[in-house]
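User: Quick sanity check before I run a bigger batch. Here is a single chain. Can you write out its predicted 3D structure?
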Amino acid sequence: MAVGDISIPKTIYPIDGVKMGIAQAQVRYANRRDLTVFAIDQGASVAVVTTQNQFCAAPVQVLRQHIAEQTPAYLLINTGNANAATGSDGYQRALATCQALADKAGVTTQAVLPYSTGVIGETLPSDKIIAGLDAAMADLSADNWLSAAHAICTTDTIPKLASTTAVADGITYHITGISKGAGMIRPNMATMLGFVATDANIAPDLLQTMLKQLTDASFNRITIDGDTSTNDCCTLIATAKVGELIDSENHPHYQSIYEALQAVFVRLATLIVRDGEGASKFITVKVTGGKTTQECADVAYSVAHSPLVKTAFFAADPNWGRILAAVGKAGVNLDQSLVNVALDEVAICQRGGLAAGYTEAVGAAVMQRPEITVHIELGRGDASDTVYTCDLSYEYVKINADYRS
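Assistant: Done. Predicted structure follows.
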């Protein structure tokens, strides 16, 4: 059961220059739309970040090679099978699906980027994917964002979609994106899968820089279970259909577009946490007063990853010593007497000890809330960072124990 605001935008803006087609390939299950094709107009810029997991999946390996050689014209996404830990056979199967789509579309194989998500270690049914391409191509439409959001899901319980506009000097830019993920989430670059597009005209090098910054502040600041997937990829497309070329952060339209993109990225990332496998609480861990952003992130992740902290939140048990223990093991050289911790408006720790006026009853009451912010002040400097996570429930264990059934 997803937590809090999981609503689909009332307006989903089509992006001129991007179309999506969805089909049933029966990769793992019958009667499920599990194959998605993105068609991208010529002239677009495309940026990608991929997993840092050293056991990266075959499609990630192919994708890295292809985008280094050519600007993509098509994205090919399947769910139900990750095509990871499949050796040279998996690589050849990923390549074969790209070749098949390229032949149908009249482009080079390198112009197709493959993405897969699902079970690791099983042979990719590439023949089924290839057989489904005609239906996906026939379905291509600029209005298929919501259908694509559904089609890329695996254990997700909700589609994840965000859409907005940016206005600069009377010019309106549109931004729409989708993501998927609910488990095996501690992105070490992006999320399991994320696709965002804008009709702005952004130079390729700048777009890649923007994507790195955007993911660092969004998808790289979420965790459900601390596991980095073998298949993580996030793709940002700028179709160049609106406005003049933006090739520098100094361009007068840059900041407006960046802030709108950031809102979309953060929304897509936090939707993944809200839909965390078995989640009943959405938890924001905000760390302030660090010497560097990195040490703030280290502390935030130490708390967000702790199974003891996460199970305490699930049980609404105000065992605040678990939070302090997680702060202390983050590898940051702290002065305990400067550390303060609060749950929402309730101070639980002041100057390294029990906060004046705190009671177990007050702590238990705040822990019952479906959305909680843990604010940790380190007293070391002016840096800050934020990580988003969820609790750890019985249902998480059940979902992952039964995942392949």
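The chain has twelve helices and 15 strands.

User: Great, the batch can go ahead then.
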